[in-house]
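Researcher: Let's continue the batch. This sequence belongs to Glutamine--fructose-6-phosphate aminotransferase [isomerizing], and it's 608 residues. Same format as the previous ones, please.
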Amino acid sequence: MCGIVGILGQSDVANRLLEGLARLEYRGYDSAGIGVMERSRVKVLRAAGKLDNLRGEVHQGKPKGRVGIGHTRWATHGAATQGNAHPHRAGDVTLVHNGIIENYIELRQALEAEGVAFTSETDTEVLAHVLDRLVRSSDDLHAACQALLKRIRGSYAIAVLFDGHPDLMFVARNGSPLAIGYGKLANDGTAEMYVGSDALAMTDWTTHVSYLEDGDWAFLRPDRVQIFDRSGVEVSRDIVTVPKDEWLVDKGPHEHFMLKEIYEQPDSLGRLLRHLFDLDGGKVKDDIAANVDFSAAQRIVIVACGTAHYASHVARYWIEDFAKVPVEIEIASEYRYRPRVHGANEIAIVVSQSGETADTLAALKDVREHVSATLAVVNVPTSTIAREADTVLTIEAGPEIGVASTKAFTGQVLALLALALKAGCDRGVISSEDLAARIGELVTLPRLISETLAVRDDIERVARHLIQSAHVLFLGRGIQYPIALEAALKFKEITYVHADGYAAGELKHGPIALVDQKMPVVVFDGAGALSEKTASNAAEVVARGACVIRIGTGVESADQGIRTPQCSDLVEPFVNAVVLQLLAYEAARAKGTDVDQPRNLAKSVTVE
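Model: Same format as before. Here are the structure tokens for Glutamine--fructose-6-phosphate aminotransferase [isomerizing]:
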């Protein structure tokens, strides 16, 4: 969602702030702004819409200064307007904020009763006014900032500049990620400090980063930082090194990041295979979830949101098959709030690409006291969820910039499959011979994904047909059912065409009423035991006059749909995932929508 970047530097920062914000565009935003310390007063420039609009404001305003903060906003309280864009000023305080302040209404009403006039609809401006009043009533800046944190409830990552303090920045986090970067200039060795809601924002300036913990707050100067915990005790946080090659975000020869990331899947899945499995020995590597013993597990619950939720549904078929243990799949935003019954030998797995998904993180914190072990499947090993879980399994996908998840989805599915196989081994359900055979099937993944990418022309033809309709129905049975759900999600989020995913066997229980000549139906025609039943469901649709488009290895001609490479049942969900990704991509491209940054969506959902 919203992005923060800050610099305490040795040269003009306006253009560098814009560069940092550009690296955060993938998170999703609808307005942007920067604040630059000119001598001892902050100059603020803001614009609604894309960063190009802000660049125009900066070019005209020509701010000059070595210290500054920037922000990309995804609208929560208040519309996407210039007036609601960050930074917000109040007196001597200039502030940017990610998150949601839950008690902002009562704070705002109290300020209005004291005569404060607000210029925006945001909860962030309330923060600025509260802090300004605290600063004015105290001669201790540290005490004023700590008092602010005690007055507010909710999630936040904030960065603040103060008029009259030209080399100082205050930052704090609770529930929203925030990182501090440490840098030295090569020419003379002088120091700079940075802050970002994502380490990616600081990629050109430093590889040395520390991550604030929930409740932390800090004062930054160009050459040093003081970090305090929730109680006000000064603490240190580890400085980690993130290699620059892990932050490469160039589109290369591809038109969009999404397409680049689709085409990266043979490499990303091959890399993950080597990370998860001893390919020569035909086994799951010993260090994969080594401290999680599935042998006594009576239940596994997997908690996730969005695409990660559908990846979890795929995994349930494998875990229950290979490990013979019941699995429940939960939407994090529902799971964290409903009454639940836990068992003594229950294992909780949370899945999140960013490792910062607000509802998933809250669910993890809530459940960990009630289960025997928690395990996180994430793409960012330094993320909050990774740090909070007992065990971490990374999907090794590298940066994913497109809002619509592609390589992260298949990475999550493969990582969860490895856990299913490990659980089967722990429980004595899978023999070493069976395990080696399964891993032998998975070794074919990179090649089969490459072969799937080669049928892009057929996929593009089908995509152009689908966008002629106002509605599309995706069907699947068995493990293809969650693939149909993911296909519908991908299609609607980047094409803006309404799409639904259904279990094909449920067609007669309602959805068939919608079927007519105007609604195309896409069927994931798996080659497994349910293929004949899926064919019968497709025939029911054809009998109602709908156009049926089949996806699978049994497709005989282009008139029927999209023929995929011959593969095993174990590999088929990965192959079909790539087809659905390209299908949504080509449809969106044909419609001319914003593929990488679809409207109203954010890459990392860090607020409820």
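Researcher: Any comment?
Model: The radius of gyration is 25 Å.
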